[in-house]
Amino acid sequence: MDLTNLKFGLPAAEREIAKGLTEYFVESESYERIKNREKTIILGNRGTGKSAIFKVLSDREKANRNIVLELSPEEYSYEILSTSLKAESEGAWNKHSAFAAAWKYLIYMLIMKAVTREGKKYKRGPSANIYNFLRDHQVGFQDNPIAVLISYLKRIEGIKIGSYEASMRTRELTSLYKLEEIKPLLEDLKDVCKHKKVLVMIDELDQGWDSSEDAKAFVSGLFQAALSINQLTENITVYISLRQELYDSIPAIYDDAQKYRDVIEIISWDEETLKKLISNRIRYFVPDLHLASDEDAWNAIFSEQIQYRKSKSFNYLIDRTLYRPRELIQFCSDVLAQNSGKKYPMDYEQINVAESRYSEDRTKDIASEYRFQMPALNSVFEIFRGRQYSMSREDLEYICLSIVEGEARVAQDASAWVKGQDHEFLIEALWLVGFLKAYAVGGVKARRRSGSSYIGSYQVSNLNLGNITRFQVHPMFRTYLGMKESK
C-alpha cells in the first residue's frame, strides 16, 4: 500500500476547495437542508464546517451555470462602519432598521448587476429595464460592497440627524426604508431569475468582530434583510453563516429568535459522521484504500487499539475534540507529523507526542474564541493547572467560588465578568465552552459513548447541571494544564 501522499487535508475550507474538498466532502443532512433552501442561516462553533458547506455548495452551483455571489470578510469591516457612522446616541435613528434597509439595497443591487452583466445585448423586457436603471442611475456604482452599504446608511443618517422639516423627513425616510428607488424593478428581477438561480453567500461575519453597536446592528440588520429578500422568489437565496456564540450575544437577533428559528441550521457532528469525514480524506489521498470501509481505512493508518489502557485509537482522538471537524483534522495531522519513520499503522507513541502541542493550541484557541463574551478565559483555565481532572461537585464549587470571590487570582479582564457572580454561573460557563464534562445521569446516558461516563455540552444541548454530582475537565485541555488522574 502506497502511503507516500497521505495527508488529512487543510483545516480551513477556503484553502481546500481546489485540493479535493468537493471529492471528500461529507454530504450531511445539514448540507441537504441548506442545499434544498430549507435552511438559510447556518450557525455553528468555529471549526464545525460552515465555510466548507458554503464552498462546496458554491462550487456545485457554479458548475450548474447558476450565479453565486460570495461576500468575503475583507469586503466589510466593523471598524470602517464605526468610524463612518454616528452613534445612535448622537441622533434619533435606529441602526438595526437602517442596516436592514441598506443590506437589502446592497444585495439587490449586486444581484441586478450580476444578472445583467451582459446588458448590452438586452433590447427590451425585464433585463433591459434593470440594465437601463443601472446605466442611468448607478454611474460609477462602487464594486466595493462596504462602500455601497455605507453610502446608503449615510443617506438615512443624513435625514435622521439632519435639519429636515418633519414632513420632508418622513417622506424621505419612507422612500429609503421601502427601497422605492428600486422597488419597481423587483418584478423584473423575479422574471429574469425564472431560469437562473442566484445565491448570495455571506460568510465569516466573525472576522474582525468587536462586539460594538455597529457590529451588532450590521449582523441583525443583515438577518432581517435576508428574510425579506428570500421571500421574493425561490430562485434568489441569501445564505448567512455565523458563529453560534456571536448569534447568542446579539440582542436584536436573540430576542427575536422565533422569526428565524425555522430557517436556522445549527451544524453539529457525532462520532459516526466524524469518522466518515476523516475516512473520506484517507481514501482520497490513499487510492489503494478507495474501496475500504470507514473502519478499515482508519485502521490502515492508526492502530485499532493503542497501548494506553487498550483504548481504541479513534475513541482516544475523538475524546480529545469537541466534535468539530477542524479539531480532528488538526490532531490527525499533528500525529502524522510525528511519524518520521513512516511506520503504519501509527500507535500511541506518535499520538502521545502530538497531544502536547495539540492540547496547548486548542486550549488557547477556545479562550480566543470566547474573548468577547469571556475575556481572558485562559486565566480561568489556569486555575485548574496541576489539579486532578476528575472532581466532585463540592470540589468544583470550591474552585469556582474561590475564582468569583477573588481568592484565586485571574487576569483583570476575566475578573470583570466573573467577580461577584454566583459560582453556578461559572460552572455553567465552563460547561458551555466545553471545558467541563458532566457525569451522565438519567435519560442523557444514551448520549454518552460506550466506555465513557461523562458527557459534554456539544453532545447534549440542555442539561440541568444542578443535578450533576461529578465533573471532569475535558481531555482536550488536560495535557496542556498538566492535570492528574484521581488517586
Mean pLDDT: 87
Helix proportion range = 40-55%
Discrete helix count: 23
| Structural class determined from secondary elements | alpha/beta
Report the radius of gyration as a whole number of Å: 26 Å
Please give the order of strands in the largest beta sheet: 2-3-4-1-5
Stretches with pLDDT under 50, minimum 5 residues: none
| Major β-sheet annotation | 5 strands, parallel
What is the global morphology? globular
- Count all strands and give the number: 9
Approximately what portion of the residues adopt beta-strand conformation? Answer: 5-15%
Measured between the Cα atoms of the first and last residue, the distance is 45 Å
Task: Offer a quick outline of the entry.
With 487 residues, the protein is of the alpha/beta class.
Could you please describe the fold and organization of this structure?
Helix content is 49%, strand content 8%. The chain contains 23 helices and 9 strands. It has helices at 21-24, 29-35, 50-63, 78-84, 95-115, 126-137, 145-161, 166-177, 186-192, 213-230, 244-248, 251-254, 257-260, 271-285, 294-301, 313-318, 325-337, 348-369, 377-382, 393-404, 412-418, 423-432, 475-481, and strands spanning 41-44, 67-71, 198-202, 236-243, 264-266, 390-392, 436-439, 454-455, 470-473. Strand 3 (198-202), helix 10 and strand 4 form a beta-alpha-beta unit. The radius of gyration is 26 Å and the shape is globular. The two termini are 45 Å apart.
List keywords for this structure.
single chain; 487 residues; four-stranded antiparallel sheet; 9 strands; globular
